[in-house]
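FIELD: query
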Amino acid sequence: MKSQFSLIFLFILSISIYGQKKEILSKQDKAVAEHFKKEYKKKNYKKFQGKIVSTDSYVQFDDKIFYYNKYDKSDKIISNLLNEGLIYPQLLTDYQMEKFLDETTDRTQKRFLKLQKDPRAGFDVSGARLSNAAELSFLSSNPTVKRFKFLSKDIRIAGSRTYFIELTNKNANNKTSLEDFIKGSKLTYIYQN
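FIELD: result
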């Protein structure tokens, strides 16, 4: 009886060990992982150099604002990103404009954009609400590099945009807290899906 019990126990234990699956990724996560494999080019973005004013519900960068919820756990990441000046409205506005110029093939739209007094105004993301930040651990195993995603909801535009960013902190290791990692990091990649 003891030997039967031992065999059954070993069988169940082996099934549970070998039956464990890897983290299941959504279609969007698979597409992002593929993007990082094929189209990724590291770039260094500057931190915000102006005046940053932070409150419980928004962070102001000179005359531009991003809203967030300071008391939401996922928005703690956003709070740290904003207060460190890694993400700011002027940066995402410039990114949206460059993305448009790179992706559009309509020369009329490009000419019209160049004729405008302030071509950046149409891409302005000031006033957007940033939320649902999450670290994407499946995209990086290097302790000096972390990748995140967050949503940007602008009341002027229907729907929301999902941004993916990469932060690099050359002094980080496996024991570095997320907050300390963000404080000592540089923004090295932005991608909007």
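FIELD: remark
Confidence is low (pLDDT under 50) at residues 16-21.
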